[in-house]
Amino acid sequence: MQMRRYKYLIGSIYLFAIILAGCTENIKINKDTCTEEIIVQENIKPEKSKQEIASQESITEVDVQDEADRGSIEEVIYISENYGEIQEYGGEFYYDEETKGFYYNIESFYLNSDFLYTMNDTLEKFYDEYLNQYLKIQDWYMEQGKQELPNGNVPYSKLIFQGVQYVDYDYISLLFADVTYMGGATTYSVFDAITLDRHTGEEVSGSEILGENDTEILEKVNELMGLDEAADWNDLDFYLQKDKIVFFYRMPGFWDDVVLGR
Known about the structure:
Blueprint: H1 2-20, H2 67-70, E1 84-94, E2 100-111, H3 117-144, E3 156-167, E4 171-181, E5 187-197, H4 206-210, H5 214-225, E6 236-241, E7 244-249, E8 258-261
Parallel strand pairs: 2-3
Antiparallel strand pairs: 1-2, 3-4, 4-5, 6-7, 7-8
Helix pairs in contact: 1-3
């Protein structure tokens, strides 16, 4: 997990450098991605909202011949409040008394007493990785010094809890959106999921759940997803449903999910 998040950290910094260079017109925003338009107006801050990301419930299936192998996504709604609570924390820094340079916010979801207490320890490590990533981004902004952004809005990074995707006696799957705003017209979002074993309290991988090695799983998912170039776990992730495992491309809006039996 640490490797994949570091990859997106580098990507975020690279895109921001493009913005500062005045090349935002060369960045193409796909209309089907989960980015949202930010009001171009002085002193307007984007509000934290679930509208910032695309809902996973709206994803459709790809057209493949073997529907039995492809599977389908079930519409099961889990009420997150029944399993735990969200705790928010964040930070910010200012270039001077009036000019905020960057801020971050993390929505941490912690499980209630129905679950092993060690599961929250595992989740804490997950959140700490994002905290360290956001602090590195903040340090980068500080090193750059005060910048005049095109629209005056403040760059930010947010980890937004999307909800419980699956829970049963065996596992629980949680979904998050890592949302970055770098001062342009849109946000940049990446989905991230974590699945925990209710018996051990540890995070589990797709290979552990399916009993197949990573190479076999990635080959199958790449083929069904129809990717031109092979993707790895830096690009793909998964969450569970009853008797199914849902593989998705982290950057939304480009590729449909692949659902396999388990």
